[in-house]
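Duplicate of #3305? Posting structure anyway:
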């Protein structure tokens, strides 16, 4: 026998008052019983917001059919959880009609009170199993929803990592990280520590960091790669820090963000190292180009100067033949000397041309490197909606 606190609510509907009393008395020890001699009284009881576990309904209630009432209750507010229909005719048609209207069990008159009680108790057990099953389904759906939400957060992190791999400036990195913040509802700052340059600080909410935010990041950048205090978490790298202001400890989302941002900080650091290397390479290229151009100018000047000197020598020697009283042997000697000098000068011209050719090739190589670098900067991946993860 159930205690009063554990009794289930039972509604009995029958237009036979005496039979109604018999059923109620036989079941009141195990159920909290309410009776209705017609469907109007039954409807009024339902309006009292009593949560009936079972409605025990006679098929013939005056001129109305219990099966029709049960069918109308299937989508009604505050309807009983289960229905049991009984009838004086246990024909195949009556049983099929009961199934069609949505009953959970069918009984034929005369009803054995013991059988009736057992059937109702069995139906309560059936309800409890259905409830357990529904709770299990809800629990699994909850787990699935949580898993999908976690997958979505990890997917967003993977997208961010992919985008960071195509960033070529600090501003570009900042914009991608802050876009991720906005999408995930995170508040925070980012600090860049470029080599041989002053640190750069940005806030996702305000654009620029406040003095206290800068001071905190300066203090915490010497902490380990991950450092938490209260709802604040900082992720450190030698060249960058990401400071999150609203990560509550002990939540699933926080664990996800910590895992994600621990990967992001390494990706940002690696990208900054690449940008530093790239900028250094560009600087070296510029210096090489400047040096080659200067060398070319010096070679051209030297060649021009040498040509002027040789022209002057040839001119003066030619004039000296008319002034000096030379014999034939002396003139031949001087003529051969001029020829040998001019021959040597011609070889120097060839060497100058070779040097200039090598310098031109060096300039062309530097220009090609700079062109390739520019093309790489201009190629940025575009993610369509269909490409987005999760």
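Output from current build:
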């Amino acid at each position: 026998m159930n205690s009063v606190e554990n009794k289930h609510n039972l509604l009995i509907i029958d237009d036979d008052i005496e039979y109604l009393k018999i059923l109620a008395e036989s079941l009141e020890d195990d159920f909290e019983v309410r009776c209705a001699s017609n469907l109007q009284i039954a409807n009024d009881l339902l309006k009292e917001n009593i949560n009936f576990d079972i409605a025990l309904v006679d098929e013939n209630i005056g001129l109305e059919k219990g099966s029709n009432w049960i069918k109308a209750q299937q989508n009604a507010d505050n309807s009983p959880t289960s229905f049991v229909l009984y009838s004086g005719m246990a024909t195949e048609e009556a049983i099929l009609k009961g199934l069609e209207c949505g009953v959970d069990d069918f009984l034929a008159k005369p009803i054995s009170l013991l059988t009736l009680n057992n059937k109702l108790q069995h139906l309560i057990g059936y309800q409890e199993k259905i409830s357990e099953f529904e709770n299990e389904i809800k629990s699994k759906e909850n787990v699935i929803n949580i898993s999908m939400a976690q997958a979505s957060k990890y997917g967003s992190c993977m997208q961010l990592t992919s985008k960071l791999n195509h960033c070529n400036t600090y501003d570009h990195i900042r914009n991608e990280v802050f876009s991720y913040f906005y999408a995930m509802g995170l508040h925070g700052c980012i600090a860049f520590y470029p080599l041989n340059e002053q640190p750069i600080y940005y806030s996702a909410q305000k654009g620029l960091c406040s003095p206290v935010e800068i001071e905190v990041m300066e203090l915490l950048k010497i902490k380990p790669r991950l450092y938490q205090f209260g709802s604040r978490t900082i992720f450190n790298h030698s060249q960058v820090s990401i400071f999150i202001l609203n990560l509550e400890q002990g939540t699933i989302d926080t664990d996800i963000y910590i895992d994600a941002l621990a990967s992001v900080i390494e990706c940002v650091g690696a990208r900054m190292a690449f940008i530093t290397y790239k900028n250094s390479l560009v600087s070296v290229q510029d210096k090489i180009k400047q040096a080659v151009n200067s060398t070319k100018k010096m070679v051209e000047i030297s060649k021009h100067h040498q040509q002027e000197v040789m022209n002057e020598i040839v001119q003066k020697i030619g004039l000296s033949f008319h002034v000096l009283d030379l014999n034939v042997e002396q003139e031949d000697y001087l003529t051969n000397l001029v020829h040998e000098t001019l021959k040597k000068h011609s070889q120097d011209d060839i060497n100058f041309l070779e040097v200039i050719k090598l310098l031109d090739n060096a300039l062309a190589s530097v220009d090609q490197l700079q062109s390739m670098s520019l093309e790489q900067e201009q190629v940025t991946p575009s993610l369509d909606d269909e490409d987005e993860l999760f």
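Confirmed duplicate; merging threads. Residues 379-390 have pLDDT under 50 and may be disordered. The chain has three domains: 4-111, 147-277, 279-378.
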